[in-house]
């Protein structure tokens, strides 16, 4: 500890604090500032995308068309998906990485700080452009977040061109962010912080960054082919010229499947930090966690066509992608087992971050199991494009990815702000969210199995009851996020003073520095604490 | 700050300006393309696009100038150097994946989609739409010949493409000779070999333009010529853009060599551009094999 204190003291002499005014945020090279901007941006997008979700659910409250035009409904499903995936979940994880990775590995900042700023500031422009399409002639993109050709080419509104360029900008941002994280983790670790001592959040992010660099260019490729088909007369996705609309799906899902792991691997990392803290035990099976994460990442490149079982791929393809997909359950099972084993006979307490982490383990596993059902090709013919799919991916994304982000926020807020949270408000937020999320998405399993198709504004009468329940749940979940917002603002503004080690069982470099963490953490590499040596 | 600690730059104006420039580029390009497709002017889009391009160009000069000054000022440690190396390596990997998407599309179309259109396998639907269609590659006869008139002929690999292959492979060697010379601090040799590399790159580009003109005017091989033209132009086109960028970067690096920025110990800027050039070369070999020859 004493070495650390002197380091910090030198640190304050060597650097100034943050700059004043708006310039601090526009020109900053500080990983904490940039992390905060990512997180606030993501929260804003979460609320915008959430309002769109509530519009969808409000329309589906009853059968028949009540509130919105079917065309606008399609724009809402499309924009909700795009904003949540690219605007809410991904930037939140990058924000958490920005804040925590340098502190966890003992680095002075991210490896390439100016590029780090650029990665963030591209996003507001990209999303301004994407959201502006709502006000254009012909409306916003209306072809679903998966933008299948020819819906997104031949039959697309003119705003699709802006959508394509917005995707390009998001891709540039993600690739630069990923390069930064890789360079930071591989190059800026404190002496003695070997790869197999790396906190699991860093490991999962390192692997996620590889996935990002591998697949974001493929997404850029597929939207470029769309652009060529729309404006330059090519026939990539047009069978009339010898191309194939199914080609779009192959290239898209070659990006899209690793993308879903991009949205869950950092979540695994967060949960693997939180559970040991509140179980007051070391993480069970650290090495197997690392290998399981890497296995999931590698397998994610070999399973893309399980999204396309009904499109008419050869039988050998169906079988290969079915079994390859099921294989992913093995490393995922290892992870869930390790989390449970970490808690086994631990001295558990149930503060807000731990509640979200526990809910993650249970509810993500439910989403994992429905994924396994969807992986079975012959029965997927029944499930495909129904609400069962909607239930599945919302279970892995909302009580999965989003809960992990909230768990991470609650867990690290004391380190960021220097204030403890209001536990009562945190617990209120948790229980409202937990109940709301299940009321929203659990009935979707049933209406999906009964045959209700996704992406429609109207439905047959027999689905009415469960849809009404789901809508009530959605509003409970949506409104309870205001508690989260209130909670975060309250924690930033004040509260009980947090100690350096804000949580009793917390281990790692980030808990050795004061709360709030000083503006520049380690200008000299720190000595590792006992627990990491 | 001494070079023993990791250099964390102070605040910088470049990133936010670059974001604005990128936005202008993207918004301008989108507006221009939409206007052109709707047959209406496109002046505003073009203006925004050019403004964005100009701004981005100035920013790149300023931003890299900043980095070069810091590097010359001795602010960068060997650890910083490693960050740059990781950064450039993974950037090139992302470029590899970008081309992989188009190569994958080419393979899928050639091996699966076109034969299926011709009725191979158990897929009857396309046979009903276009019963006359027979699969072949290069695809001279797209199913819907009205919208996509096939090419009359395709580029023979054994004329310009073979020559271009020789040019690019030679240029990789000349660049390596330049690197070898730089490691021995023979700066005049570096200049000569780099100059030769740039000339080879420019000749390659000249031939490529000539080939495109020939394809459009004499062979009927266009973007609208069906899937052969589409894959041909997207692969060779993006490769050509990368050669252009690579040549431009080589010219800048040659300028920096002339200014005496590099010596045998410190020359990552040179190496990064050399890596990029070799990558472009490797992509070309893939193109030559799979687009032209096979």
UniProtKB/TrEMBL annotation, chain A:
GO molecular function terms listed in the Swiss-Prot or TrEMBL record: cytochrome-c oxidase activity; heme binding; metal ion binding
CDD domains noted in UniProt: Cyt_c_Oxidase_I
Presence of keyword Signal: no
Catalytic function, reaction form: 4 Fe(II)-[cytochrome c] + O2 + 8 H(+)(in) = 4 Fe(III)-[cytochrome c] + 2 H2O + 4 H(+)(out)
Organism: Marinobacterium stanieri
GO CC annotation terms, alphabetical: plasma membrane; respiratory chain complex IV
NCBIfam families xref list: CtaD_CoxA (TIGR02891)
Residue span(s) of domain Cytochrome oxidase subunit I profile: 25-529
Assigned protein family: Belongs to the heme-copper respiratory oxidase family.
UniProt pathway annotation: Energy metabolism; oxidative phosphorylation
Subcellular compartments: Cell membrane; Membrane
Enzyme Commission number, as recorded: 7.1.1.9
Keyword terms of this UniProt record: Cell membrane, Copper, Electron transport, Heme, Iron, Membrane, Metal-binding, Respiratory chain, Translocase, Transmembrane, Transmembrane helix, Transport
Gene3D superfamilies: Cytochrome c oxidase-like, subunit I domain
InterPro entries (UniProt xref): Cyt_c_oxase-like_su1_dom (IPR023616), Cyt_c_oxase-like_su1_sf (IPR036927), Cyt_C_Oxase_1 (IPR000883), Cyt_c_Oxase_su1_BS (IPR023615), Cyt_c_oxase_su1_dom (IPR033944), Cyt_c_oxidase_su1_bac (IPR014241)
UniProt name for this protein: Cytochrome c oxidase subunit 1
GO terms for biological process, alphabetical: electron transport coupled proton transport; oxidative phosphorylation; respiratory electron transport chain
Function: Cytochrome c oxidase is the component of the respiratory chain that catalyzes the reduction of oxygen to water. Subunits 1-3 form the functional core of the enzyme complex. CO I is the catalytic subunit of the enzyme. Electrons originating in cytochrome c are transferred via the copper A center of subunit 2 and heme A of subunit 1 to the bimetallic center formed by heme A3 and copper B.
Protein's membrane topology: Multi-pass membrane protein
Region ranges (Disordered): 513-533
TM region positions: 38-58, 78-99, 120-140, 160-188, 200-227, 247-271, 283-305, 311-334, 355-377, 389-413, 428-448, 468-492
TrEMBL record, chain B:
InterPro entries recorded: Cyt_c/ubiquinol_Oxase_su3, Cyt_c_oxase_su3_dom, Cyt_c_oxidase-like_su3, Cyt_c_oxidase_su3-like_sf, Cyt_c_oxidase_su3_a-hlx
Keywords: Membrane, Translocase, Transmembrane, Transmembrane helix
GO terms classed as biological process: aerobic electron transport chain
EC number(s) reported in the record: 7.1.1.9
Domain of life the protein comes from: Bacteria
MF terms in GO: cytochrome-c oxidase activity
Record-annotated membrane-spanning stretches: 45-68, 89-109, 158-178, 190-210, 230-254, 275-293
SUPFAM superfamilies linked: Cytochrome c oxidase subunit III-like
GO cellular component: plasma membrane
Subcellular location: Cell membrane; Membrane
Ranges in coiled-coil conformation: none
Domain Heme-copper oxidase subunit III family profile residue range list: 2-294
Predominant location category: membrane
Gene3D superfamilies to which the protein is assigned, alphabetical: 1.10.287.70, Cytochrome c oxidase, subunit III, four-helix bundle
Membrane topology recorded in Swiss-Prot or TrEMBL: Multi-pass membrane protein
Record family assignment: Belongs to the cytochrome c oxidase subunit 3 family.
Protein's UniProt name: cytochrome-c oxidase
């Amino acid at each position: 500890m004493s070495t650390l204190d002197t380091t910090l003291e030198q640190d304050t002499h060597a650097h100034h604090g943050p700059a004043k005014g708006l310039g601090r945020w526009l020109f900053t090279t500080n990983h904490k500032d940039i992390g905060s901007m990512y997180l606030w941006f993501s929260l804003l997008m979460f609320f915008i995308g959430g309002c769109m979700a509530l519009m969808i659910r409000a329309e589906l409250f009853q059968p028949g068309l009540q509130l919105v035009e079917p065309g606008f409904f399609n724009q809402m499903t499309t924009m909700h998906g795009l904003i949540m995936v690219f605007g809410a979940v991904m930037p939140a994880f990058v924000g958490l990485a920005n804040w925590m990775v340098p502190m966890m590995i003992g680095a002075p900042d991210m490896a390439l700080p100016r590029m780090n700023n650029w990665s963030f500031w591209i996003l507001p422009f990209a999303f301004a452009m994407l959201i502006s399409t709502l006000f254009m002639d012909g409306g916003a993109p209306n072809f679903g977040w998966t933008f299948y050709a020819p819906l997104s080419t031949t039959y697309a509104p003119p705003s699709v061109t802006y959508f394509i360029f917005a995707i390009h900008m998001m891709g540039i941002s993600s690739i630069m962010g990923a390069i930064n994280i890789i360079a930071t983790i591989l190059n800026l670790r404190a002496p003695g912080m070997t790869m197999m001592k790396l906190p699991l959040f860093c490991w999962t992010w390192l692997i996620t960054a590889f996935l990002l660099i591998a697949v974001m260019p493929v997404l850029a490729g597929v939207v470029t082919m769309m652009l060529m088909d729309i404006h330059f007369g090519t026939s990539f996705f047009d069978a009339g010229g010898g191309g194939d609309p199914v080609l779009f799906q192959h290239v898209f899902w070659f990006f899209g499947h690793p993308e879903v792991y991009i949205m869950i691997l950092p979540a695994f990392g967060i949960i693997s930090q939180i559970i040991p803290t509140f179980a007051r035990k070391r993480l069970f099976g650290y090495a197997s966690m690392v290998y399981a994460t890497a296995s999931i990442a590698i397998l994610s490149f070999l399973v893309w066509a399980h999204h396309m079982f009904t499109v008419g791929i050869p039988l050998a393809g169906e079988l290969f992608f079915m079994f390859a997909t099921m294989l992913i359950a093995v490393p995922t099972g290892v992870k869930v087992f390790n989390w449970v084993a970490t808690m086994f006979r631990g001295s558990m307490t149930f503060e807000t971050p731990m509640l979200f982490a526990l809910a993650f383990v249970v509810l993500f596993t439910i989403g994992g199991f429905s994924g396994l059902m969807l992986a079975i090709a012959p029965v997927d013919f029944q499930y495909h494009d129904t609400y069962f799919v909607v239930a599945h991916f919302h279970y892995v994304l909302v009580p999965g990815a989003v809960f992990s982000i909230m768990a991470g926020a609650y867990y690290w807020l004391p380190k960021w702000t220097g204030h403890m949270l209001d536990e009562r408000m945190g617990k209120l937020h948790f229980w409202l969210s937990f109940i709301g999320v299940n009321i929203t998405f659990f009935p979707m399993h049933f209406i999906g199995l009964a045959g209700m198709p996704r992406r429609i504004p109207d439905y047959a009468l027999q689905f009415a009851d469960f849809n009404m329940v789901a809508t009530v749940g959605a509003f409970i979940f949506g409104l309870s996020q205001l508690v989260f917002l209130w909670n975060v603002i309250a924690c930033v503004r004040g509260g009980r003073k947090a100690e350096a080690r804000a949580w009793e069982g917390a281990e790692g470099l980030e808990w050795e520095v004061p709360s709030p963490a000083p503006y520049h953490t380690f200008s000299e590499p720190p000595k590792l604490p006992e627990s990491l040596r | 700050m001494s070079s023993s600690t990791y250099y964390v730059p102070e605040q910088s104006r470049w990133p936010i300006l670059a974001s604005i420039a990128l936005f202008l580029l993207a918004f301008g390009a989108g507006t221009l393309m939409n206007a052109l497709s709707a047959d209406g002017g496109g002046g505003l889009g073009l203006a925004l696009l050019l403004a964005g391009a100009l701004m981005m160009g100035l920013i790149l000069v300023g931003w890299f100038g900043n980095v070069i000054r810091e590097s010359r000022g001795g602010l960068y440690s060997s650890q910083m150097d490693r960050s740059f190396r990781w950064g450039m390596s993974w950037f090139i990997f992302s470029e590899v994946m970008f081309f992989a998407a188009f190569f994958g599309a080419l393979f899928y179309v050639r091996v699966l989609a076109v034969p299926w259109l011709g009725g191979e396998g158990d897929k009857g639907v396309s046979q009903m739409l276009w019963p006359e269609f027979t699969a072949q590659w290069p695809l001279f006869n797209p199913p819907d010949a009205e919208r996509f008139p096939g090419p009359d002929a395709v580029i023979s690999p054994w004329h310009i493409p073979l020559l271009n292959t020789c040019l690019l492979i030679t240029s990789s060697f000349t660049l390596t000779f330049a690197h070898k010379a730089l490691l021995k601090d023979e700066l005049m040799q570096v200049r000569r070999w780099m100059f030769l590399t740039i000339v080879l790159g420019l000749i390659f580009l000249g031939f490529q333009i000539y080939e495109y003109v020939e394809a459009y005017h004499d062979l009927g091989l266009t973007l609208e010529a069906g899937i052969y033209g589409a894959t041909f132009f997207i692969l060779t086109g993006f490769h050509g853009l990368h050669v252009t960028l690579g040549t431009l970067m080589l010219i800048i690096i040659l300028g920096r060599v002339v200014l005496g920025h590099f010596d045998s110990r410190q020359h990552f800027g040179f190496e990064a551009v050399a890596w990029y050039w070799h990558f472009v070369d490797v992509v070309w070999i893939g193109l030559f094999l799979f687009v032209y020859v096979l």
